[in-house]
Amino acid sequence: MTMERDLGLIALSHNEKDVLYAVQSVLAVSDGVAKSDEIRSHDLVRDMSQPTFHRALKSLLARGLLQHAPDTKAGSYVI
Prior knowledge:
The chain is mostly helical. It has helices at residues 2-6, 14-28, 36-40, 50-62, and strands at 34-35, 67-68, 76-78.
């Protein structure tokens, strides 16, 4: 919890954290861009409902914790 507090993640919901951690995990093994379908298939969010997943993703974008990847189609994200 201390690390999450230090990084400003303490205010995130459980679902937002799971999506953010899934994005980070996908980025660790990708070309630097996390695609929505790759994120969606990650173990942390696989069982999350589609609307909940998209709400969490939208919230992370609004908070500036994720960004749309430049020069890519929709559904591609970077931290």
